[in-house]
Every structure is written in C-alpha cells, then in structure tokens.
Design brief:
Elements lengths: L14 E6 L7 E4 L5 E6 L3 E11 L3 E6 L7 E9 L4 E3 L5 E9 L2 E8 L5 E10 L4
Parallel strand pairs: 1-5
Antiparallel strand pairs: 2-3, 3-4, 4-10, 5-9, 6-7, 6-10, 8-9
Amino acid sequence: MNNVIVDIPRDTDVKIYSVEIPKNFKSGYQEFEDGTALLLDENEYFQWAWYYIGHTKGEFAVDFNNVAGFAPVTGNCCEWDVHNRVPSIGNAFFHTYGVMRGINTVRVFGNHSSDGPLHVAVGYVVIKSQI
C-alpha cells in the first residue's frame, strides 16, 4: 500500500485562539475584556467548557490550556447565542475537523458554512477521573 500525500489548498488563514482554564476549576461563566467568554461546568466524571471566540468566519482553532491530565476528550464547534450566553443551533453548518489532546491541553479545530461571520463557540468534554 502506498501512502499518498494530498496538498489541500487553503483560501483562508486559521485563526488560533488560546484560553486558560482556571486551575481551581469552578462551574460558571466569565467574560473577558476582548469580548470572548468562557462557560465551564463539571460533574463527578466529566469536565466541559465552551469558549465564545466572537463574530468570525473562516477556519478557527482554540487551544484550551490547563485542562487536567491527558484523558480522552471530544470537542465541537457551534453557533453562540449572545443573548443567553450559551451554545445554540443556528442556520449554518459547523464542522469540527479535529480534536487534539496533549498533556494539560486540548485543541479543537473547525469552521462553519456561512459566507459571512457568525458568533462562534468551541467546546470540549474530557473525562476527569476513572469511571
């Protein structure tokens, strides 16, 4: 079997955002001066976060830093309801290209189908203890 490398042309640059998850993780909502926001929650086994990156188009990635451990993770991208400050389902399709896990780090990478900018949120769910 031959390996084939495909060069996929990109017409946009990937915007990479970075957010620090508080070391003393507490459920709640926090807005930042740059207009971004972080929504955190957890239960006995899982920790999850949503990061509102703002009104954007094209490809984007979010690096979540200080995510405890290196346990399995899943992530996704969706529209953000700016009035209720929660993820929402809008008219555009959101695509999650990949979720990467490093020690104490998660990266979620995606885009959306709209021609114009949308309010975008990127999130993850991670196992925080053995089930």
